[in-house]
Design brief:
Elements lengths: L2 E4 L1 H9 L3 H16 L5 E2 L7 E6 L2 E8 L4 E9 L4
């Protein structure tokens, strides 16, 4: 089974979200990522090794370590802040 861990940056941003519907969307995406860790779009250049999932209008960035069966959720950010 794949283990999901959260970076402190993601935890801070997630706690600040007041919209319950948006929080539910994030939780659903986390379940999808857990079931299929390679579902996200692989990033290039300086972000190589990370993957992203689109949750309108934000991006959820994570890293999957296949050998450890671990996913680390790094950040939730707006596309314009990239």
């Amino acid at each position: 089974m794949v283990i999901i861990e959260f970076d402190s940056l993601f935890e801070k941003k997630f706690k600040r979200i007041k919209n319950k519907l948006f929080k539910e969307k994030i939780k659903k995406q986390l379940l999808k990522i857990r079931n299929n860790p390679e579902i996200g779009k692989p990033m290039k250049f300086t972000r190589k090794g990370t993957r992203e999932v689109y949750i309108f209008p934000y991006r959820l960035s994570y890293v999957y370590f296949e050998e450890k069966q671990t996913i680390i959720i790094w950040d939730l950010y707006h596309k314009d802040e990239q």
